[in-house]
Amino acid sequence: MTILNKSFDTQYNTAPFSKIKNEDFLPAFKTAIESAKKEINVIVNNTEKPTFENTIEALDYSGEELDRISSIFFNLNSAETNDEIQKIAQEVSPLLSEFSNDITLNEELFKRVKVVYDSKGDLELTTEQETLLDKKYKGFSRNGANLSEDKKEKLRAIDKELSQLKLKFGEHILAETNKFEMLLTDESDLSGLPEGAKEAAKQLAESKGKDGWLITLDYPSYIPFMTYADNRELREKLSKAFGSKGFHNDDLDNQDIVLKIANLRFERAQLLGYKTHAHFVLEERMAETPEKVNAFLNELLDKAKPAAQEEFEKLEAFAKELDSIDQLQKWDSAYYSEKLKQKLFDLDDEKLKPYFKLENVINGAFTVANKLFGLQFEEINTVDKYHEDVLTYKVTDSEGELVSIFYADFFPRSGKRNGAWMTSYKPQMIKNSVNERPHVSIVCNFTKPTKSKPSLLTFNEVTTLFHEFGHALHGMLANTTYPSLSGTSVFWDFVELPSQVLENWCYEEESLKLFATHYETGDVIPMELVEKIKASATFHEGMQTLRQLSFGMLDMSWHGIDPTAITSVKTHESEAFGETKLYPDVEENCMSTAFAHIFQGGYSSGYYSYKWAEVLDADAFEYFKQEGIFNKTVADKFKAFVLSQGGTENPMTLYKKFRGQEPQPEALLRRAGLLK
Questions:
Q1: What per-residue confidence (pLDDT) applies to 321?
Q2: Which of 180, 248, 558, 670 has its CA at a distance of 20 to 30 angstroms from the CA of residue 101?
Q3: Could you tell me if 415 and 471 lie in one domain?
Q4: Strands 182-184 and 213-215, sheet pairing
Q5: Are 138 and 264 part of one and the same domain?
Q6: Which DSSP letter does residue 390 get?
Q7: Chain CA centroid to CA 461, Å
């Protein structure tokens, strides 16, 4: 028995990271799976009549040890991985997939669940209990409990293969990202780059024992270079490297993996009686069907496309006038957009960054959470961390009661995947009359402090931090009985509402005054800069919307059809992008082979939900604006009906309790400046 299989003898029951060794994981998983199986057997072998308590509730509380080990391990595999952890992940994933199938395909267990489900009309259940019962029943029926034995075996094999393919896909992307380096030895190649970006590139080269400036595919290195570097050839080289991850016909190629995943998902859906993978997934979403999703995407496309084309033509004319560029390419996009934005708004990220020192932005997010929801954040150093860069906080309410433990991990490193995400190390639940509080984490990739400067964020990074912090609040403020309905365990197209709505506070003067102060002088951000931020918020909104819609449409093109006839990933992708295309195609590039959201993460048939949630967030924030962005009544309603409720009730019901109406798409179009 490893340290992971015992109850943690730590303050707040936090994970004892420093004591966990890589070799502990595999035996810990095996032990925990056996323990969980015993818990399931107790439910199955209970001679008493199946009841909500002895079957449904018992099932939801089972496997707690396994869930805890899984969350620790897979979070490390994303934020602090190495070859050994990746190898363990390949061994563990099929074991977990098999165990999951052991539960959902357990006939005796399903019989007990079905007895309770069939008698639900006679039971006096709370709304949360009704939701849990429905979820548990569907957990079986949607995952093969009604299949014949041979089909169950087929399902097991598909799930096992999918779990390994998804991991392999992610490993290839991380390896591709880490492999590429562009070492520049002539300083003139850095022309246009801000001093901070040059210094970071110099420091990165030094850390690897090289002379010059090192540019990589990690966002804090890639984005500034694509946005500011005057050297068009180098932008092209970097853009092509970024856009061709997993598309080199070598041992890190993902084309076959993409085709296999799409086909296996389709085969799985068909096996379960669904037309496509998207039909299977969307049954448990606010959007309900692929037809509704496609109608939603196309409606926004109709509104956004004319604006996007107009913006693109203006950008092309601007590039031609400035640098005699005849044909705008993808590697010109960020560069000329930034130049045009500076010209139109006299607003440059480099002017804004001094007002967004990372520590101040963190405190700003905390202050907003305090004013809205009465939360207090205290940094503590008594909690174990998995890396020295991680910050740890104790979160309490206005009564001083513990709300959550909060981890924050902000800087890139080689064992950490790109992007930003929120996750949890321990869920909230009420068990044996004790309200177990959650342990929540956010992970980002911001520019590290240099010798001469602290970590200064671009405005885009500020909104990213607020976005992930919004997810974190959803996890922290959870107040449900059952772990599987707690926090962010909600329909996928609802989960982005708390994160996206919080981004709105980054644009408001009343909020910015609280934290946007110059890191050297302490001066509050000048209001003319705030006005420019607001004025520029809808800059190229048509093009941005088109880009997001193109990703959603690509996702649906893989998952909303029968993919068996697709032989070329690139050809299929080009067709899917047809209606949303502005820039010429780049032959060497392919997005699908690095589209981790849908082929590694949980967004398959769900990428549209970013836009769906934007409709929700625009509508919700209109309510805040109407009453005041720190209005206590509105904030209390948001906390009571959205943040604390998790997945206990249908999300549209919860939203209407908060807002008093269904969300209006016009709110998003108004905010985006797309309503003429």
A1: 96
A2: 558
A3: yes
A4: antiparallel
A5: no
A6: -
A7: 15
Half-sphere exposure of residue 595, counting CA atoms within 13 Å on the CB side? Answer: 30
Residue 605, in any domain of the structure: yes
Does 74 fall in a domain?
A: yes
Q: Are residues 362 and 329 in the same domain?
A: no
Helices (H) and strands (E) in the chain, counts: 27, 9
Q: Which of 156, 147, 120, 10 is nearest to 72 (CA)?
A: 10
Domain total of the chain: 4
Q: At 100, phi and psi to the nearest 5?
A: -60, -45
- Element containing residue 182 per DSSP (H, E): strand 182-184
CA distance 93 to 190: 44
Residue 124 gets the label, from left (phi > 0), alpha (psi -120 to 50) or beta, of beta
Pair 405, 395: CB distance under 8 Å = yes
Q: For residue 129, how far is the Cα from the chain centroid?
A: 28
Compute the distance between CA of residue 288 and CA of residue 407 in angstroms, rounded to an integer: 34
Sequence-ordered list of residues with C-beta below 8 angstroms from that of 403, at least 6 positions apart, any chain: 375, 395, 396, 397, 437, 476, 477
What per-residue confidence (pLDDT) applies to 676? 61
What Cα–Cα distance (Å) separates residue 474 from each residue in 193, 428, 610, 632, 650?
A: 38, 11, 16, 18, 16
From the number of C-beta atoms within 10 Å of its C-beta (0-12, 13-18, 19+), residue 675 rates as exposed
Closest CA to 236 of 225, 220, 247: 225
Q: Which domain holds residue 398?
A: 354-492
Catalytic residue list contains 468:
yes
Q: How far, in Å, CA of 433 to CA of 211, rounded?
A: 61
The per-residue DSSP string of 578-602 comes to GGG--SPP-TT--SGGG-HHHHTSS
Asked whether the whole model's pTM tops 0.90, one would answer: no
Q: Average pLDDT, stretch 557-582? A: 98
Residue 532 inside a domain? The answer is no
CB 258 within 8 A of CB 170: no
Choose the catalytic residue: 468, 496, 503, 541: 468
Q: Is residue 513 part of a domain?
A: no
Q: How far apart are CA 578 and CA 557, in angstroms?
A: 12
